[in-house]
Design brief:
The chain is α/β, with parallel strands linked by helices. The protein folds into 2 domains: 30-423, ANL, N-terminal domain (Rossmann fold); 437-547, GMP Synthetase, Chain A, domain 3. Strands 2-1-11-10-12-13-14-15-16 form a 9-stranded mixed beta sheet, with helices on both faces. Strand 23 and strand 24 (475-484) form a beta hairpin. It is globular, with a radius of gyration of 24 Å.
Length: 548
Amino acid sequence: MTTPLLGQMMDTPLNVSSLLAHAARHFGNTEIVSRRLEGDMHRYTYRDCEKRAKQLAQALIALGVQPGERIATLAWCGYRHLEAYYGTTGFGSVCHTINPRLFPEQIAYIVNHADDSYVLFDISFAELVDTLAPQCPKVRGWIALTDDAHLPDMQTPVMSYETLLAAQGGVYEWPLIDERAASYLCYTSGTTGNPKGALYSHRTTVLHAYGASLPDAMSLSARDSVLPVVPMFHVNAWGIPHAAPLTGAKLVFPGKDLDGKSLYELMEAERVTYSAGVPTVWLGLLTYMKQAGVRFSSLNRTVIGGSACPPAMLRTFQDDYGVEVIHAWGMTEMSPLGTLAKLTWEQSQRSPDEQRELREKQGHVIYGVDMKIVDPDGNELPWDGVAFGDLHVRGHWVINRYFRNEDSPLVDGWFPTGDVATIDPDSFLHITDRSKDVIKSGGEWISSIDIENVAIAHPAVAEAACIACAHPKWTERPLLVVVKRKGIDVTRDELIAFYQGKVAKWWIPDDVVFVDELPHTATGKLQKLKLREIFRDHVLPSALEGAA
């Protein structure tokens, strides 16, 4: 008995280079616009981008770079960084994006751990490179992403990116690469211990771009003008530099200026229809727009992720400015997308309040990802929207181990995310907390995220963080740390009273402290570990009452 052939199809490997080649061939005249560090705007097309990416590949090969070697970037969102994405991976080396907001000691650790051969950097990081170079002796060269005229005065010997490219003709055929070969290397932010590397393959990168582009995911289109506010060093800008050429969308890069005024003016000038970023950036944009009394003329939807989108922010975007918010969740270990809050036809027929409640959650998985919640013993919990437990995921673009670490974090084939969540009967995920941030009060759990969301809905609160404080009777009780909006006052008692009727009585914070600013990680997330250290000795009024 013979086994029938399953198919007579062309077996073409899923290579990252095919995304840019597709855009150059079929959307060759579509624009890529960048705000340059040199102070002007740069415009060219996908066709131009591919030629220059090929020139970069030729230049790196001429420098002796071999397939599999890591080429690092220290750069903002811009056209040269996009060329680096494809010029490195296109011939088989690995693009290693580094977050320049990390401490120099962490960056040096990352460069050395990755064994980077060359580092491409924006000239705004010249001083940082001078600090790093003596600590990274295995780096063979530092390449400034500029021309000779703008080379900064540095202690470190550097090469000019434009000079390297000018020496190459750009006539180059992308080689076919094993789709399971490495493509990108991204490190976690390292808030606890040294950062860990997540190594992606060509296959996972292309599949992630497909998944991200689906209508019920990011829903990118050739009709969109897309501005990724999320930096290209933050988990590959959530895959937008891959999904945009896949769909033929116009790309608009903001450079280093991410303040509200700069973002708004760029969005208006380039008729941006779609954007993506973390809540802290959107807070600055919305604050500017309210003060300036301006509105969007083209933006119609945005992805918000990185940390939970406060319901008040979602309502402001949608109700005040008519912008659809796509609430998203993911992590570096997932390339990063896992879920997005898009409604089904049936859900869109429900009442406005029911729809809003769904949109405020992190949403359903996209094809390529599966999820479950488990109790401390590993037993799977029901999807009833009530039971909450540790969130585990698996899928086509979820890593099975960290770079240069043979110990796999997987549990029975699932990756434990470190998040605590519920899943409702609609299959919508709701992240209730990080496992390390849950407040354990009298044997019951309190979600710090829910406490923060209520506070941010108060008109006098610009930003809020909820952490656990020690309590002699209840073990832990919630402490609210608040940054006030400029020109608006609120007292501790007024804020505590604001919680009445919004959460269970025993969830209401025991105390409120006001600060000028909150600490954030390099990717814009609240740095609660640091807050817990700062307020480690804070004494709650209820603790004093108990002692009396």
